[in-house]
Specification:
Number of helices: 2
Low-confidence stretches: none
Radius of gyration: 44 Å
Number of strands: 2
Distance between the termini: 130 Å
Helix content: 55-70%
Structural class: mainly alpha
Order of helices and strands: EEHH
Length: about 100
């Protein structure tokens, strides 16, 4: 047979001593670490997205103000009195005389 002598596991105060199993402990620590890192990463993403949303809302407000300003400018440029004044002063145009008007029926 073999020369190996099997010794019984020693007992201390009624508990048997054996080699500790570290794999379940390391697995548990790795899972807790992974979950913690995911939680921290997700919170950082939420904060960054909040900053991005705030920045985009500010740009949107600025663009809405530009739209209002441009609408007001377009309305003032379409004013018939302004167009007539520019035609008279800058282009030298005048209202047509009665003999220059042709009525088409």
């Amino acid at each position: 047979m073999s020369d190996t002598i099997l010794r019984p596991i020693p007992k201390v105060n009624g508990f048997s001593l054996r080699r500790p199993r570290l794999l379940p402990l390391f697995t548990f620590i790795a899972v807790v670490l992974a979950v913690s890192l995911f939680f921290v990463w997700s919170r950082i993403q939420v904060v960054n997205l909040g900053y991005n949303i705030s920045s985009l809302e500010g740009r949107l407000r600025g663009m809405e103000q530009d739209i209002q300003r441009l609408r007001l400018e377009a309305a003032s440029l379409r004013n018939p009195a302004r167009i007539e004044r520019m035609a008279r002063s800058e282009l030298g145009l005048d209202l047509p005389g009665a003999d220059q008007v042709v009525i088409i029926e």
